[in-house]
Fold this sequence. Notes:
It is found in: Cell membrane. The chain is an alpha+beta fold. It has 3 helices and 9 strands.
Amino acid sequence: MKPVFLALLLPIILLASCASPSGYDGYMTRPYTVRGVHYTPMSVNKALYYDETGEASWYNESSWFGLKRGNTSLGEKVQAWHVTGAHKTLPLPCRVKVTNLSNGKELKLRLNDRGPFIPGRIIDLTPRAAKKLGFHEHGITKVRVQVLSVGDGKYEKKRPRKKRFLFF
């Protein structure tokens, strides 16, 4: 290739690489429908106070030994060995702390997908996340999910810290 062509092409490549890989900016909070059920994600401010106990499961949509996987709701490529998860109504992306209530193991992870769409379950995790929490063999477990932050980069909003009062 000629140097002039490369000089013109380089800024275009750099600008394209700065764009959001999934085609969203900020938070994904638009309503959606799956299997005839309508879901409306909660607002960012409400999500910052999210703290729920319920059933977690793990999912693996991989094919060919986990080396090929589809896109998440945010359009990101995720492999089975990543530590991520899915939630029906939290804004995406979102960072949460998941605590396995049967063994006390905790894990901080990023939510970047929608689901689980099975009644009674509040969160789906990748196989590696399930292994780290110690329930991969069982398939489901009771967990506590607490939001740490919502959004990425300049859009990130963190959960407000509880004020602690010291009495002397």
